[in-house]
């Protein structure tokens, strides 16, 4: 239970720190989101490198996504993604019914507008992990009722 | 092995972020150290609250310190403190022979001057945890050969 707590608490502090040191304007909010996303990107790159050290080569894109949903997610959030869907044309939707980084906000719709800053880091995390596996992507997140959350991964063909 | 990795990578990113956004002057370095220490303080407060939720009341100060060395340290760093010493007059020295947050720097003396910024967060972490258990303290850290590290806790009598 307390296993992922240090990470979770530190993640909250990072958000506080970044938001405290800046103005509250619209532009600045966008910049803060990018800052969090960039941090996540680099953490994702580092983590995936360590996690895939001894794994076999991935068969295809879907195989990579399954690894993200299982091993990668478990390493960071101590649970797997609950549902993975794809249109088989480069779009994947990862659904987490109880996303840990939203766990400290009240469930329901009350704090929905606070959600983006709690998701930006994780969007970067997934993008960074995929990027180090040679998959370029755009990752966005969507919440309709906390603490459930969907991450949409759009693969960028080169 | 990879269990503490998300926390460790995020911790590194936080240091990069704080140091990147500021000048490199002496005063600024001191301020960055405080920033990290403060973050650690709040994380320590949150963590200890969660960890002690179901534990019995502590007998005395030494009992509290043992909890920090075992349960608290294991929660954050996946290992216990290797050695705890005290002069029985309010000074405790916690020695970690393989401190995780120094693990990504080369062992030995080469990067010694980089060590303080990798220790500040943890000093705050211990101070925050103790503070929430009603023990006021000053926590400093000392490295002679990486990745071994000593944390000195001076209890402040009120």
How would you describe the overall organization of this protein?
Chains A, B: InterPro entries: NO_sig/Golgi_transp_ligand-bd (IPR024096), TRAPP_component (IPR007194), TRAPPC6/Trs33 (IPR037992). Chains A, B: This is Trafficking protein particle complex subunit 6B. Two copies of one chain form a homodimer. Chain A has helices spanning 5-20, 26-51, 61-77, 115-132, and strands at 83-86, 91-96, 137-142, 149-155. Chain A has a single domain (4-155), classed as Trafficking protein particle complex subunit 3 (Muramoyl-pentapeptide Carboxypeptidase, domain 2, 2-Layer Sandwich), CATH 3.30.1380.20. In chain A, helix 1 packs antiparallel against helix 2 (26-51) and helix 2 runs parallel beside helix 4 (115-132). A four-stranded antiparallel beta sheet of chain A has the order 1-2-4-3, with helices on one face. The model of chain A has no long low-confidence stretch (mean pLDDT 91). Chain A contains four helices and four strands, in the order H-H-H-E-E-H-E-E. Chains A and B meet through helix 1 and helix 2 of A and helix 1 and helix 2 of B.
Q: What CATH architecture of chain A do you see?
A: 2-Layer Sandwich
Report the biggest beta sheet of chain A as strand number plus sense, adding barrel if it closes. 4 strands, antiparallel
Number of helices of chain A: 4
Count the beta strands of chain A: 4
Strand content of chain A: 5-15%
Keywords (chains A, B): Endoplasmic reticulum, Golgi apparatus, Neurogenesis
Pfam family, one (chains A, B): TRAPP
Protein name (chains A, B): Trafficking protein particle complex subunit 6B
InterPro entries (chains A, B): NO_sig/Golgi_transp_ligand-bd, TRAPP_component, TRAPPC6/Trs33
